[in-house]
Amino acid sequence: MSKSIFYHAGCSVCISAEHDIIELIGKDNVEIVNIGEDRTRIKEAELAGVESVPALVTPTGNALHINFGASMSDVKG
Amino acid sequence: MSKSIFYHAGCSVCISAEHDIIELIGKDNVEIVNIGEDRTRIKEAELAGVESVPALVTPTGNALHINFGASMSDVKG
Q1: What burial class does residue B28 get, using C-beta atoms within 10 Å of its C-beta: 0-12 exposed, 13-18 middle, 19+ buried?
Q2: A28 burial via Cβ count (<10 Å: 0-12, 13-18, 19+)
């Protein structure tokens, strides 16, 4: 199975969700990307359908928005 | 590890998220509860912190709200 990608922006809601996701699906099965720090990946996240963070993009390409930390426009600032 | 519980209400957003969650964490690791049909479990979901469905309550007790299908007040009708 290819990896999921968990996009976050370092907010407290994001960090809490990150811990849950790693616990649930295993750290080897998910790449963690902080788009607040690695801004070169914001475009990739948007193309994957990410509208807010934290969000998990599954290997099948679905974007699951988890709780609500920040909108993409907040991240872009 | 004890099971997670995935609460949903049969909406299309819920069903799509259900498939993703089962794929990600494995069907043996999650109990699926349709609180639209099994209304006796609405109270339990609310006590677990579920504010909208679909939502995944982790073994550690955190409620992860996934995308947005329906609010609890919509489910209660």
Answers
A1: exposed
A2: exposed
Distance CA B68, CA B75 (A): 13
- Give the global pTM: 0.91
What would the pLDDT profile of A18-32 be if each residue is shown by its tens digit? 999 999 999 999 999
Cβ–Cβ gap B67/A68 under 8 Å: no
Q: Could you tell me if A25 lies within 8 Å of chain B, comparing CB atoms?
A: yes
B6 membership: H or E segment, kind and range? strand B4-8
The amino acid that residue B8 corresponds to is H
Residues of B with CB below 8 A from A60's CB?
20, 23
ipTM of the complex: 0.87
Verify whether the Cβ–Cβ distance A66 to B68 is below 8 Å: no
Find where tokens 């998220």 sit.
B17
Chain A residue at shortest CA distance from B49:
A67
